[in-house]
Amino acid sequence: MQVQSASQAVNPMNTSEVNRPKGPPPPPREGGVPPGLESAVSTLSSEEQSAVTDMLASLSKDQQTTLKSQLDSLGDNASSMSQEELGSAFKDILTTLSAEQSDSSSLNKIDVFA
Description:
The protein is an all-alpha fold. It has four helices and no strands.
């Protein structure tokens, strides 16, 4: 009895690497909603969704870090919140951060009178 394996070609480049993830998921685009919050933000009105996108795009790196830490702390209670409550809480956090940005940027302006 002979085994004929020569009839099957083996391609060493065709391995299971196709199914393997290529690293962490990409960060959200500028003004993009963080992963996992898309459905919560979709419960907001279209005007609120637009405002959320604008606020996200205008955050500084420090504010993005603050937003992440606030969302992480919210994560403990998020499992008991509805998508509407989660979307509203996310919008409120962004509104607070954006208001702080407006206040701090206005402090850097100098009025000069002659």
